[in-house]
Amino acid sequence: MTDLATELRALNEARDRHIPAEMRQVMDRAAVDLADSGQAGRARTVGEPAPRFTLPSATGVTVALDDLLAEGPVVLTFYRGAWCPYCNLALRALQHHHADITARGARLVAVSPQIPDESLTLTEKHGLAFDVLSDLGSDTAKQYGLAFDLPDDLAAAYDKLGFDLQRVNDGHPRTLPVPATYVIDREGVIRWAFVDTDYTARAEPADIISALDALDETR
Question: Could you give the number of structural domains in the chain?
Fold first, then answer.
Protein backbone atom coordinates (compact mmCIF):
# COMPACT_ATOMS: atom_id res chain seq x y z
CA MET A 1 0.00 0.00 0.00
CA THR A 2 1.36 3.44 -0.92
CA ASP A 3 2.03 6.25 1.52
CA LEU A 4 -0.92 8.30 0.29
CA ALA A 5 -3.34 5.40 0.61
CA THR A 6 -2.05 4.73 4.11
CA GLU A 7 -2.54 8.36 5.14
CA LEU A 8 -6.02 8.45 3.67
CA ARG A 9 -6.99 5.31 5.52
CA ALA A 10 -5.62 6.70 8.80
CA LEU A 11 -7.55 9.92 8.27
CA ASN A 12 -10.74 7.98 7.67
CA GLU A 13 -10.23 6.02 10.89
CA ALA A 14 -9.63 9.28 12.78
CA ARG A 15 -12.84 10.71 11.33
CA ASP A 16 -14.79 7.74 12.62
CA ARG A 17 -13.41 8.38 16.10
CA HIS A 18 -14.09 12.10 16.26
CA ILE A 19 -17.27 12.74 14.27
CA PRO A 20 -20.58 11.84 15.96
CA ALA A 21 -22.17 8.62 14.76
CA GLU A 22 -25.31 10.31 13.45
CA MET A 23 -23.21 12.68 11.34
CA ARG A 24 -21.13 9.80 9.99
CA GLN A 25 -24.34 8.06 8.99
CA VAL A 26 -25.40 11.12 6.99
CA MET A 27 -22.02 11.22 5.24
CA ASP A 28 -21.95 7.51 4.53
CA ARG A 29 -25.52 7.48 3.22
CA ALA A 30 -24.78 10.41 0.90
CA ALA A 31 -21.65 8.62 -0.36
CA VAL A 32 -23.65 5.50 -1.22
CA ASP A 33 -26.35 7.54 -2.95
CA LEU A 34 -23.76 9.41 -5.02
CA ALA A 35 -22.07 6.16 -6.05
CA ASP A 36 -25.45 4.69 -7.02
CA SER A 37 -26.39 7.79 -9.02
CA GLY A 38 -24.02 6.91 -11.86
CA GLN A 39 -22.16 10.21 -11.51
CA ALA A 40 -18.76 8.63 -12.18
CA GLY A 41 -20.03 7.20 -15.45
CA ARG A 42 -20.98 10.68 -16.66
CA ALA A 43 -17.47 12.04 -16.21
CA ARG A 44 -15.12 12.64 -19.13
CA THR A 45 -12.87 9.66 -19.66
CA VAL A 46 -9.91 8.29 -21.61
CA GLY A 47 -9.94 9.03 -25.33
CA GLU A 48 -12.25 12.03 -25.05
CA PRO A 49 -11.21 15.64 -25.66
CA ALA A 50 -10.53 17.61 -22.49
CA PRO A 51 -12.95 20.54 -22.19
CA ARG A 52 -11.07 23.83 -22.45
CA PHE A 53 -11.15 26.35 -19.63
CA THR A 54 -9.73 29.68 -18.53
CA LEU A 55 -9.68 30.19 -14.76
CA PRO A 56 -8.11 32.57 -12.23
CA SER A 57 -5.32 31.28 -10.04
CA ALA A 58 -4.76 31.89 -6.34
CA THR A 59 -2.08 34.43 -7.24
CA GLY A 60 -4.32 36.44 -9.56
CA VAL A 61 -3.00 35.03 -12.84
CA THR A 62 -5.44 33.79 -15.49
CA VAL A 63 -4.63 30.25 -16.62
CA ALA A 64 -5.95 28.70 -19.84
CA LEU A 65 -5.72 25.00 -20.63
CA ASP A 66 -4.73 25.76 -24.23
CA ASP A 67 -1.72 27.76 -23.02
CA LEU A 68 -0.65 24.91 -20.74
CA LEU A 69 -0.99 22.33 -23.51
CA ALA A 70 1.18 24.46 -25.80
CA GLU A 71 4.04 23.67 -23.40
CA GLY A 72 3.36 19.96 -22.87
CA PRO A 73 0.98 17.47 -21.24
CA VAL A 74 -1.17 18.55 -18.31
CA VAL A 75 -2.05 16.81 -15.07
CA LEU A 76 -5.40 18.25 -14.03
CA THR A 77 -6.80 17.45 -10.60
CA PHE A 78 -10.17 18.50 -9.17
CA TYR A 79 -10.60 18.74 -5.41
CA ARG A 80 -13.41 19.82 -3.10
CA GLY A 81 -11.64 22.57 -1.17
CA ALA A 82 -9.19 23.54 1.55
CA TRP A 83 -11.79 22.57 4.17
CA CYS A 84 -11.51 18.91 3.09
CA PRO A 85 -8.67 17.08 4.88
CA TYR A 86 -8.62 14.33 2.24
CA CYS A 87 -8.02 16.99 -0.41
CA ASN A 88 -5.17 18.49 1.61
CA LEU A 89 -3.48 15.10 1.89
CA ALA A 90 -3.84 14.49 -1.83
CA LEU A 91 -2.46 17.91 -2.76
CA ARG A 92 0.52 17.47 -0.45
CA ALA A 93 1.23 14.10 -2.07
CA LEU A 94 1.16 15.75 -5.49
CA GLN A 95 3.52 18.43 -4.23
CA HIS A 96 5.95 15.73 -3.09
CA HIS A 97 5.94 14.37 -6.64
CA HIS A 98 5.87 17.71 -8.42
CA ALA A 99 9.48 17.43 -9.55
CA ASP A 100 8.77 14.00 -11.03
CA ILE A 101 5.84 15.43 -12.97
CA THR A 102 7.70 18.46 -14.32
CA ALA A 103 10.72 16.30 -15.18
CA ARG A 104 8.44 14.59 -17.71
CA GLY A 105 7.58 17.91 -19.32
CA ALA A 106 4.11 18.09 -17.76
CA ARG A 107 2.32 20.90 -15.94
CA LEU A 108 0.26 20.20 -12.82
CA VAL A 109 -2.79 22.30 -11.98
CA ALA A 110 -5.47 21.88 -9.32
CA VAL A 111 -9.04 23.14 -9.55
CA SER A 112 -11.58 23.74 -6.77
CA PRO A 113 -14.84 25.69 -6.49
CA GLN A 114 -13.34 28.00 -3.87
CA ILE A 115 -12.77 31.73 -4.17
CA PRO A 116 -9.15 32.68 -4.97
CA ASP A 117 -8.46 34.04 -1.47
CA GLU A 118 -9.27 30.66 0.08
CA SER A 119 -7.09 28.85 -2.48
CA LEU A 120 -4.25 31.25 -1.76
CA THR A 121 -4.41 30.34 1.91
CA LEU A 122 -4.05 26.70 0.97
CA THR A 123 -1.14 27.45 -1.33
CA GLU A 124 0.72 29.39 1.32
CA LYS A 125 -0.01 26.84 4.01
CA HIS A 126 1.33 23.84 2.14
CA GLY A 127 3.88 25.56 -0.11
CA LEU A 128 2.39 24.22 -3.30
CA ALA A 129 4.55 24.83 -6.35
CA PHE A 130 1.69 24.38 -8.84
CA ASP A 131 -1.23 26.58 -9.79
CA VAL A 132 -4.43 26.34 -7.76
CA LEU A 133 -7.38 27.55 -9.84
CA SER A 134 -10.82 28.80 -8.80
CA ASP A 135 -13.81 27.29 -10.59
CA LEU A 136 -16.56 29.41 -9.08
CA GLY A 137 -19.95 27.82 -9.63
CA SER A 138 -18.17 24.63 -10.75
CA ASP A 139 -18.72 25.46 -14.43
CA THR A 140 -15.53 23.68 -15.47
CA ALA A 141 -16.30 20.71 -13.24
CA LYS A 142 -19.69 20.52 -14.95
CA GLN A 143 -18.01 20.37 -18.37
CA TYR A 144 -15.96 17.41 -17.13
CA GLY A 145 -19.11 15.72 -15.78
CA LEU A 146 -17.88 15.93 -12.19
CA ALA A 147 -20.19 18.44 -10.51
CA PHE A 148 -22.96 17.32 -8.17
CA ASP A 149 -25.18 18.93 -5.54
CA LEU A 150 -24.98 18.02 -1.88
CA PRO A 151 -28.17 16.59 -0.37
CA ASP A 152 -29.85 18.74 2.28
CA ASP A 153 -28.82 16.64 5.27
CA LEU A 154 -25.16 16.49 4.22
CA ALA A 155 -25.07 20.24 3.58
CA ALA A 156 -26.49 20.76 7.08
CA ALA A 157 -23.85 18.43 8.53
CA TYR A 158 -21.08 20.40 6.83
CA ASP A 159 -22.56 23.60 8.26
CA LYS A 160 -22.41 22.10 11.75
CA LEU A 161 -18.77 21.22 11.19
CA GLY A 162 -18.09 24.88 10.38
CA PHE A 163 -17.04 24.46 6.74
CA ASP A 164 -19.03 27.56 5.64
CA LEU A 165 -19.28 26.56 1.98
CA GLN A 166 -21.60 29.49 1.36
CA ARG A 167 -18.66 31.85 1.87
CA VAL A 168 -15.70 29.92 0.47
CA ASN A 169 -17.62 28.87 -2.65
CA ASP A 170 -18.93 32.39 -3.24
CA GLY A 171 -22.62 31.63 -2.89
CA HIS A 172 -22.53 28.15 -4.45
CA PRO A 173 -22.51 26.04 -1.27
CA ARG A 174 -24.23 22.93 -2.59
CA THR A 175 -22.20 22.21 -5.74
CA LEU A 176 -18.93 20.28 -5.46
CA PRO A 177 -16.78 18.24 -7.85
CA VAL A 178 -16.24 14.53 -7.58
CA PRO A 179 -12.50 14.20 -6.87
CA ALA A 180 -10.79 13.42 -10.16
CA THR A 181 -7.40 13.55 -11.84
CA TYR A 182 -6.67 13.57 -15.56
CA VAL A 183 -3.54 13.24 -17.68
CA ILE A 184 -4.09 15.22 -20.89
CA ASP A 185 -1.73 14.96 -23.84
CA ARG A 186 -0.51 17.92 -25.90
CA GLU A 187 -3.32 17.42 -28.42
CA GLY A 188 -5.86 17.94 -25.64
CA VAL A 189 -6.97 14.31 -25.41
CA ILE A 190 -7.49 12.62 -22.05
CA ARG A 191 -5.04 9.71 -21.86
CA TRP A 192 -5.50 8.66 -18.23
CA ALA A 193 -8.29 9.30 -15.75
CA PHE A 194 -9.06 8.71 -12.10
CA VAL A 195 -12.66 9.46 -11.05
CA ASP A 196 -14.17 8.14 -7.84
CA THR A 197 -17.31 9.29 -6.06
CA ASP A 198 -15.70 8.14 -2.80
CA TYR A 199 -14.07 11.35 -1.57
CA THR A 200 -11.73 9.34 0.67
CA ALA A 201 -10.08 7.77 -2.41
CA ARG A 202 -7.58 9.73 -4.52
CA ALA A 203 -5.29 9.20 -7.49
CA GLU A 204 -1.92 7.76 -6.54
CA PRO A 205 1.00 9.95 -7.66
CA ALA A 206 2.87 6.84 -8.83
CA ASP A 207 -0.01 6.02 -11.20
CA ILE A 208 0.06 9.57 -12.57
CA ILE A 209 3.81 9.28 -13.21
CA SER A 210 3.27 5.96 -14.98
CA ALA A 211 0.59 7.56 -17.18
CA LEU A 212 3.00 10.33 -18.14
CA ASP A 213 5.69 7.78 -18.94
CA ALA A 214 3.18 5.97 -21.17
CA LEU A 215 2.71 9.20 -23.15
CA ASP A 216 6.40 9.21 -23.96
CA GLU A 217 6.22 5.60 -25.12
CA THR A 218 3.51 6.40 -27.67
CA ARG A 219 5.42 9.24 -29.31
Answer: 1
- Straight-line distance from the first to the last Cα atom of the chain, in angstroms, rounded to the nearest whole number: 31
Compare 127 and 195 and report the one with higher pLDDT.
195
Task: In whole angstroms, give the CA distance from residue 177 to residue 44.
Answer: 13
pLDDT per position as a tens digit, 24-41:
899 999 999 999 999 999
Between the CA atoms of 156, 179, 77 and 83, what dihedral angle is there, to the nearest 10 degrees?
A: 30
Is pTM beyond 0.85? Reply is yes
DSSP 189: B
Q: How confident is the model over 68-80, as pLDDT tens digits?
A: 999 999 999 999 9
What is the CATH number for 56? 3.40.30.10
Please provide the size of the chain in residues: 219
Query: What is the domain range of residue 42?
Result: 3-217
Nearest to 43 by CA among 211, 215, 196: 196
- What are the tens digits of pLDDT across the range 94-129? 999 999 999 999 999 999 999 887 766 665 666 788
State how far the alpha carbon of 16 is from the alpha carbons of 9, 80, 198, in Å.
11, 20, 15
Strand, coil or helix: what is 180?
Answer: strand
Contacts of 202 (CB under 8 A, 6+ apart): 4, 8, 86, 89, 90, 93, 179, 181, 194, 196
**Which SS3 state, helix, strand or coil, does residue 84 take?**
coil
